[in-house]
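Subgroup meeting minutes
Present: P.N., E.W., G.H.
Scribe: E.W.

1. P.N. recapped why we're keeping a running log of single-chain structure predictions: easier to compare across weeks, and new members can see raw inputs and outputs side by side.
2. G.H. added today's entry (72 aa).
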Amino acid sequence: MDMSMDFEEQFIVVDTLFLNYTIVIDVSDRTTSVWCEHCNEWVVDYEGDAISNHSSMELYEKIIRDHTETLK
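Output recorded in log:
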């Protein structure tokens, strides 16, 4: 019996929603990660459906606020 598992991760990449930020959503656990194209680094991870739980402006403000906090 073959015990190997076919594990395939699926991501949704949104690179046109916000200037300087790319949003990556892990479909399996609904983690939303944010990449800053200016800093070239991951700046924040959100658990759950961050994109659907916020309007685009609310999410953008949250990302900027959280990113600013990580820079301190």
